[in-house]
Design goal:
By secondary structure, the protein is of the alpha+beta class. It has 3 helices and 5 strands.
C-alpha cells in the first residue's frame, strides 16, 4: 500500500473537485483518555452510502481501536499509538470499493 500518509493524501486529492473540499474533509484529533479520533466525511464520494459495522478491539488500556461508518462518515478511535492502525483500516475499507 506504500506509505499510509501518501495513500491518505491520494484518497483526499481524488475527492477534491473544487466543491467537496469546501464542505467536507478529514479530521484527526487527539482524545483526552489519551488517544486519537479520526473522522472522514464521505458525503459526495463513492463511499457515501457504504456502511461499516463497528469493530472494536480492546487489547489494553492504551492499545485499543474502534471503527465504524454510517450516515456519510467514517469514524475511528484508538489509543495513543494506534493512529496508523486507524488510518490503515480506513484505507483498506475504502479501497475495497474500487
Amino acid at each position: 500500500m506504500g506509505s499510509l500518509l501518501d495513500a491518505l493524501q491520494s484518497w483526499y486529492e481524488e475527492q477534491c473537485d473544487g466543491e467537496w473540499e469546501h464542505q467536507y474533509g478529514i479530521k484527526i484529533e487527539t482524545l483526552d483518555n489519551p488517544g486519537w479520533a479520526v473522522e472522514v466525511d464521505l458525503t459526495g464520494t463513492k463511499l457515501s452510502d457504504r456502511m461499516l459495522t463497528e469493530t472494536a478491539e480492546e487489547r489494553s488500556a492504551v492499545d485499543w481501536i474502534r471503527c465504524s461508518a454510517a450516515d456519510g462518515r467514517f469514524k475511528g478511535f484508538g489509543g495513543p499509538r494506534n493512529l496508523a492502525e486507524i488510518l490503515e483500516r480506513f484505507l483498506v475499507w475504502a479501497e475495497a470499493v474500487e
